[in-house]
Amino acid sequence: MSFDPAFFWDALLRPSGPFLEGLWRTVYISVLAQFLAVIIGLGVALMRRSKRRWVTAVAGFYIWILRGTPLLVQLVLVYNGLAAAEIYSFSDLTLLGVTVTGVFQAALVTLAINESAYMAEIIRAGIDSVGKGQSEAALAIGMTPRSAMRWIILPQALRFIVPPLGNNFNAMMKTTSILSVIGVDELFLNTQAISSTTFRTFEVFIVAALYYLLLTTLWSFVQAWIEGRLNASAGISRPPTIGQRLFGGGRAVVRAEAP
């Protein structure tokens, strides 16, 4: 079967409704999962820094299990395994007039928990990057450890957390294609359905690849804007350019101190 340029350009410039629905679902499931992952990851990161050894051990075990097993296996275990073992079966829920399918719930939970293990390590490393003197100074002026973490340490750690967080979110948008194995009709699964009905596999999947590329490129701009704001407050005058972010190379430049 030859390449059909007319079909390709039509699919690229005027994508069908199911294709756009899959694209939109890919975006919002990634955003929701990343949001939940940051919250869970922050909790696990703080557990890792606890002075109680058993708390640290539990957090370490959580990270070890989730980072050491494939996301695909975790996904099948959560959706199919729990139901087969009669532990829990995800069923459709209606919240505020909106029906959330069981398969979507399973996908969101699995993505968030898997990502939280990586976020925990990213946040812990970000917190450790802030000098101990900052925490000691906050405690010396009468702040509680919780207040010091909330108002002094975490705001400074953000500059170290955002770059790897953004990279992980970028990867997650592409990883959502795995959700097709349990029937989540995101971009990849809907593209497969279109391919099956049109028999234009090459054209349709090139279009899907270009839309994935568009999503990750747009996110690179957003990430660059966020990092630019954080770097400006830290005296880094020239963060990596968009070209360096997309194609690799380059690094931030720290503003020289006046003599």
Q: Helical amount among residues, as a percent range?
A: over 70%
Report Rg: 22 Å
Number of helices: 10
Report, as a whole number of angstroms, the end-to-end distance: 69 Å
Task: Supply the helix-strand structural class.
Answer: mainly alpha
Count of DSSP E strands?
A: 4
Beta strand %: under 5%
> Low-confidence stretches at least 5 residues in length (pLDDT < 50)?
none
Inertia-based shape = globular
Average of pLDDT: 89
Order of helices and strands: HHHHEEHHHHHEHE
Biggest sheet details: 2 strands, antiparallel
Q: State the strand order across the main sheet.
A: 1-2
Write the layout of secondary structure elements.
Layout: H1 5-13, H2 17-48, H3 53-68, H4 71-84, E1 93-95, E2 98-100, H5 102-129, H6 132-140, H7 145-175, H8 187-198, H9 201-233, E3 236-238, H10 242-247, E4 253-254
Antiparallel strand pairs: 1-2, 3-4
Helix pairs in contact: 1-9, 2-3, 2-5, 2-8, 3-5, 4-5, 5-7, 6-7, 7-9, 8-9
Please explain how this structure is put together.
- With 259 residues, the chain is mainly alpha-helical.
- It is 73% helix and 4% strand.
- It is built from 10 helices and 4 strands.
- The strands form 2 sheets. The protein has a two-stranded antiparallel sheet with strand order 1-2. It has a two-stranded antiparallel sheet with strand order 3-4.
- Helix 8 runs antiparallel to helix 9.
- The longest helix is centred in the last third of the chain and has 33 residues.
- It is globular, with a radius of gyration of 22 Å.
- The protein starts with a helix and ends in a 5-residue tail after the last strand.
